[in-house]
């Protein structure tokens, strides 16, 4: 019997420090075929199959999400450099998944957590200020600081820069009080090691892929993933490049990031490239192992504003829920699934197409009315 090429995870991942807390389950989450959705979207392409990677089910925490894979490596690297903190300060939007997951980890580690949230990300503040992730952040004991962007002179387009003054002041005040503070930027992406978790994820995915005996090419031809702060996409790009270098694969899938931040696509591509190259360097790959041509981002499905649930996103959420019983969030995965469905309909995506569901369903109660979208056969 021939031994699989995909049996041994590269040893380099074991060289990084680890938390004394398990953030992920010991087994990989499921990959599910979306056969009813294939019929519902009327693609007319018999050779196209839709799958979803249930990354929302990957964690020991419930609800989970993709930021936990980032924190799995980024936190212990930060602890090794600056010591175990007594306080964590994180920034994000009013319904930030990263801030909610940071609060979960901080509570489990017994570390005080402060969350600086931009309160002007949503058109209607009333429900967003009381429900969804914000309710969970409070339940987890995090101290919430609202930083209205209208009071900050350095407001820029990217989420996170709008309240940098408030976050900086908080960090300095805590340090003056003798606290050892760890700062977590938007999405935990601009931290050393933020892409390592999703580079490691690639090897779990490839092992699962091999066991599925997929038709056609025998592998996933396209991967789609929501892209915001960038390190999830960057880590996946770096991970597939490493997989090719170590002989796990001969050909990489086409990886498509679906923009949700509303940043200019070329600017976002360069940002993702920077993180991907940093990740590749930590994995022992050369500086030129990844180029800008490897970073593909589709900026057509943002809905016009970060966090805004437009009609196309609502329709997709309703279609997926009623055809598959799968709940997608309106900030990230509703938009990335819209990109997948339209890409299939237009012939841009074909073969075995995999959407990575990064979680975030915990925001749903902050979006009243999303379930009342007009029924439509198109997303």
TrEMBL record:
Alphabetically ordered keywords of this record: Pyridoxal phosphate
Chain ranges of the Tryptophan synthase beta chain-like PALP domain: 46-359
Active site: 96
Name of one Pfam family that matches: PALP
Keyword Transmembrane helix: no
Family statement drawn from the similarity comment of this UniProt entry: Belongs to the ACC deaminase/D-cysteine desulfhydrase family.
A Gene Ontology molecular function term of the record: D-cysteine desulfhydrase activity
Obligatory cofactor(s): pyridoxal 5'-phosphate
Stretch forming the signal peptide: none
The name this protein goes by in its record: Tryptophan synthase beta subunit-like PLP-dependent enzyme
Annotated positions of the N6-(pyridoxal phosphate)lysine modification: 67
């Amino acid at each position: 019997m021939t031994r699989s090429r995909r049996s041994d995870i590269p040893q380099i991942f074991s060289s990084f420090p680890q938390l004394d807390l398990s953030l992920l389950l010991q087994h990989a989450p499921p990959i599910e075929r979306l056969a009813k959705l294939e019929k519902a979207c009327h693609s007319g392409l018999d050779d196209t199959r839709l799958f979803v990677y249930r990354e929302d089910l990957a964690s020991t925490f419930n609800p989970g999400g993709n930021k936990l894979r980032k924190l799995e490596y980024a936190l212990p690297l930060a602890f090794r450099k600056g010591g175990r903190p007594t306080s964590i300060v994180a920034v994000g939007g009013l319904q930030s998944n990263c801030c909610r997951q940071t609060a979960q980890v901080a509570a489990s580690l017994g570390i005080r957590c402060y969350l600086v949230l931009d309160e002007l990300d949503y058109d209607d503040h009333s429900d967003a200020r009381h429900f969804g992730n914000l309710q969970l952040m409070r339940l987890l004991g995090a101290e919430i600081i609202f930083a209205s962007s209208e009071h900050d002179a350095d407001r820029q387009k990217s989420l996170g820069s709008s309240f940098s003054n408030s976050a900086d002041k908080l960090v300095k005040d805590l340090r003056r009080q003798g606290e050892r503070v760890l700062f977590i930027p938007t999405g935990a992406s601009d931290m050393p090691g933020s892409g390592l978790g999703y580079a490691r994820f690639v090897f779990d995915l490839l092992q699962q892929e091999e066991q599925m005996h997929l038709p056609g090419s025998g592998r996933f031809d396209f991967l789609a993933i929501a892209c915001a702060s960038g390190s999830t996409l960057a880590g996946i790009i770096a991970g597939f490049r490493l997989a090719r270098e170590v002989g796990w694969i001969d050909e990489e899938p086409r990886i498509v990031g679906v923009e949700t931040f509303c940043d200019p696509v070329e600017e976002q591509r360069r940002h993702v490239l920077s993180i991907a190259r940093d990740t590749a360097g930590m994995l022992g790959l050369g500086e030129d192992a990844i180029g800008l041509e490897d970073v593909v981002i589709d900026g057509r499905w943002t809905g016009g504003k970060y966090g805004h649930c437009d009609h196309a996103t609502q329709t997709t959420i309703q279609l997926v829920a009623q055809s598959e019983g799968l709940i997608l969030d309106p900030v990230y995965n509703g938009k990335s699934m819209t990109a997948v469905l339209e890409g299939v309909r237009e012939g841009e995506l074909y073969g075995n197409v995999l959407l990575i569901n990064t979680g975030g369903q915990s925001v749903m109660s902050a979006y009243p009315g999303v379930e009342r979208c007009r029924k439509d056969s198109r997303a």
